[in-house]
Write the structure tokens for this entry.
Amino acid sequence: MDRLELKQRTQTFAHRCVKLANSLSETKLGRHIQGQLIRCSTSVAVNYRAVLLAHSDAAFAAKLSIVIEEVDECDFWMEFAVDEQLVSRDKAELLLQEAKELTAIFISSRKTVQLKTRSSHHQ
């Protein structure tokens, strides 16, 4: 998967998370999770765009670390909403799976860049 496909995928992920967040109940907890999920899911997309503009491998890895943290936070808030029965597991399942897949992709990319950086320092 190339970087432009991932850019689109993160943006679609953000849109879908916002829709899920907007479907949560209007309880105090529902509103809290709604805000957190909207914040971290849009942060995934915005920070991935920053990854694409990174000026060095170190900056790339650092910005990718932010994306990894934010997508993991999305996973947390969606799981929490399911646990609190604010949304059904069925309704959240595809997004939960996407969060796990994106996390794996981004961790793998970060490892690749970090290994490349280490090997170039040892030459």
